[in-house]
Fold this sequence. Notes:
Number of helices: 1
CATH architecture: Beta Barrel
Strand content: over 45%
CATH class: Mainly Beta
Distance between the termini: 35 Å
Largest sheet: 6 strands, antiparallel, barrel
Number of strands: 6
CATH superfamily: Protein of unknown function DUF3599
Shape: elongated
CATH topology: Thrombin, subunit H
Order of helices and strands: HEEEEEE
Amino acid sequence: xxxxxxxxxxxxxxxxxxxxxxxxxxxxxxxxxxxxxxxxxxxxxxxxxxxxxxxxxxxxxxxxxxxxxxxxxxxxxxxxxxxxxxxxxxxxxxxxxxxxxxxxxxxxxxxxxxxxxxxx
Length: 120
């Protein structure tokens, strides 16, 4: 079975740009760069992302693996939107198999916690 056959989900890829808010704080503005992107995500684990001081306590983040076609424009720092949930790309690696190109793909480590995302 080829990777192409396993990509049964569709998501949108978004890329951020730093902008200033009304208080001159730098925040991220997200722009959709592509919709209808074929993908597949797989749950890895639930982990404590960090400890927040105050009432909120621990911040929990779920980790996933995301799989995409090898020619998708997706990189660390992007996020995907899948079924109303945002997943932040922590790392992105192109997996190329010269002997069997149908198994070539991009693997991404995804997090539900934005602060784990590398900002470019």
